[in-house]
Amino acid sequence: MDRPSDCQTNGGLRGSQKRRGGVRNGLLATVCLSAVLAGCAGPAGPAAPGAAPARTEPARTDAAPAPKAAAAPGGPVEAADRGAARVPAAPPLLPGLARQEEEASSEAVARQETAVRTALETAQRWGLERPPLKALPRPATRARLTPVQGVKLADGRPPVVYRVPTDDKVVFLTVDDGAEKDPAFTRMAEELGIPFSAFVSDYLARENYGYFRDMHAQGVEINNHTINHRNLKVLDYETQRREICDQQDQLEQQIGVRPRLFRPPYGEYNDETLRAAASCGVQAVPLWNEEAFPDHMEWRYDDRQLHPGDIILTHFRGTDIWKATMPDLLRKVVNDVTAAGFTLGRLDDYL
Ligand SMILES: [Zn+2]
Questions:
Q1: Do 137 and 264 lie in a common domain?
Q2: From the CA of 123, how far away is ligand 1's center (Å)?
Q3: Whole-model pTM?
Q4: Which candidate in 47, 260, 296, 306 could, as Cys together with 283 as Cys, close a disulfide (CB 3.0–4.6 Å)?
Q5: Cβ 106 vs Cβ 100: under 8 Å
Q6: Total tally of structural domains belonging to the chain
Q7: Are residues 108 and 207 in the same domain?
Q8: Are 113 and 85 a contacting pair, CB within 8 Å?
Q9: What is the DSSP letter of 272?
Q10: Poorest-pLDDT segment among 136-140, 161-165, 258-262, 295-299
Q11: Which whole-number Å values give the CA distances from 113 to 4, 16, 24, 29, in the listed order?
């Protein structure tokens, strides 16, 4: 065995080894077992066969040499020595089960190392400073909203949410309107595993709903941002209802799923807006705490930093308005979010 010292230093793994968890420890356990079978010196040597009799038993049938330290003094030692001379040098054949476990553990470690390398290469290909932090597991259920900071509740109305109540270091990217339809943006998000939610206005999307259907097929929720992107606050109830509810119908027809989330254009709304939205199935009205641009972030709070659960707004825009592309925008957002120690989550899983 090439690393018999691991037999005695299993508790002293470096951080990166510890993070590999059970797989790495399982491998070490198997490495140590095989080292013991091969005659690994040290306090674990003689005790190991007794500690795992079921696994050591097949070793004899596989013709592995008996541990020297376990042999009685006298003749048997000489016999073992003579036997050892006839057995090919290392590595000795492992018992079947142990060999399978070692191979499986090695494959798992190799797969993990490949995944890390691939993530790094993907991040570099898209110009990121480093790969995004690993996504958190989806919450089992959506949070029951209470009137905390960042959440406005009223009876019979969908909640208005600026910040999703959570202690997780997660923030949410939302992309509005639908003018720029850059396939590189969705490809970049997919390759990097970056979740986001779209809020689409019909007057911009109708020329090419296929772009948003493709986006939905890769797991992005396509939500409601009205038909004509008007300031709803200055409209009467019936007109607001047509702006909101006709887009519910349109998205259900075009995308195949009736939206749960609705965002009023410009963040402008009144009670009639919420009443109209509730009448056609809207479950929540997410607004935002930050607005992202390709070269900077605009903040609602003076501390100018991300908070757990913050919703970030940006837009489907391109070089005509920004002098930058959608991938430029996403690169800026992911770099900022990662540098602040946050991961991006899927708003629809939380709200
Ligand atoms: Zn908008």
A1: yes
A2: 29
A3: 0.70
A4: 260
A5: no
A6: 2
A7: no
A8: no
A9: H
A10: 136-140
A11: 23, 12, 12, 20
